[in-house]
């Protein structure tokens, strides 16, 4: 891992802060809450959490977020990376060599019944 002196400065933190409000507004419109995490050095790490009963499919959300800034993914969006706890992950190139790393939590009714044990009826309305 490079030391502090070996890291090259980038514009990533400046523009990432600037694009978050539009991404968060689009996510909210589609039924998700959007949260920041990570260092903002190479990428903008976001977690999308289904927040309303009207939350759209994860792929619909990802495509809408890409359209906010006319970002063209360099891979097939229909094949996200499987993450622990049912999260789906996408890494989408932005500008200046930075990425949007998006993790989308599954909607509750998308999880298999065994994921909840005996609690399924409590969690699903």
Record the SSE blueprint.
Blueprint: H1 12-29, E1 32-37, E2 43-50, H2 58-68, E3 81-82, E4 88-93, E5 99-104, H3 120-123
Helix pairs in contact: 1-2
Explain what the structure shows.
The protein is an alpha+beta fold. It has helices at 12-29, 58-68, 120-123; strands at residues 32-37, 43-50, 81-82, 88-93, 99-104. It has a single domain, classed as Beta Polymerase, domain 2 (2-Layer Sandwich). 26% of the residues lie in helices and 22% in strands. The chain has a 5-stranded mixed sheet, with helices on one face. β3 and β4 (88-93) form a beta hairpin. α1 (12-29) packs across α2. The model has no long low-confidence stretch (mean pLDDT 80).
Instruction: Quickly count the domains.
Output: 1
| Main sheet makeup | 5 strands, mixed
CATH names the topology as Beta Polymerase, domain 2
Helical residue percent band:
25-40%
Average of the residue pLDDT scores: 80
TL;DR?
With 125 residues, the chain is α+β, with helices and mostly antiparallel strands. It contains three helices and five strands. A hairpin with a 5-residue loop joins strand 4 and strand 5.
